[in-house]
């Protein structure tokens, strides 16, 4: 009896194709991770923040900011910076806000003039604490 010739892909080739597809999907998700993780977060309204920052306590917002200056550094509390909003909601003059980068984000190297997308939380006293930051 003669054997039928198999038609189809060899198993090793099928495995290689699956691995390449999984790797490509992982890379695509990873590259978009910086900005897309902030996609569902509301933009901070600077007018509302200036009027009553303490009433916003506990809320999380997104800011598109450029580092203006370093205002202070504490090993236990973190680094305090002033930032200028790049695209303020409904504002024409430059808007400058204070942000605190906690020690948990110590690996983040921040220098004057750098542009960041930040996810910030309004904490006690109306201070903006950075939860995540990524360069656009």
Fold blueprint:
Blueprint: H1 11-31, H2 33-36, H3 46-51, E1 60-74, E2 78-85, E3 96-101, E4 115-122, E5 128-134
What does this structure look like?
23% of the residues lie in helices and 32% in strands. The protein folds into two domains: 9-40; 41-134, OB fold (Dihydrolipoamide Acetyltransferase, E2P). The longest helix has 21 residues, at 11-31. The protein has helices at residues 11-31, 33-36, 46-51, and strands spanning 60-74, 78-85, 96-101, 115-122, 128-134. Strand 1 and strand 2 (78-85) form a beta hairpin. A five-stranded mixed β-barrel has the order 1-2-3-5-4. It is of the alpha+beta class and 136 residues long.
Task: Offer a quick outline of the entry.
The protein is of the alpha+beta class and 136 residues long. It has three helices and five strands, in the order αααβββββ.
The helical percent reads 10-25%
Oligomeric grouping of the chains:
single chain
Structure class: alpha+beta
What's the Cα radius of gyration?
23 Å
CA-based shape: elongated
Which strand order spans the largest sheet, edge to edge or round the barrel? 1-2-3-5-4
CATH superfamily (homologous) name of the largest domain? Nucleic acid-binding proteins
**CATH architecture descriptor name of the largest domain:** Beta Barrel
Largest sheet: 5 strands, mixed, barrel
How many H/I helical runs?
3
Show unreliable segments: none
CATH topology of the largest domain: OB fold (Dihydrolipoamide Acetyltransferase, E2P)
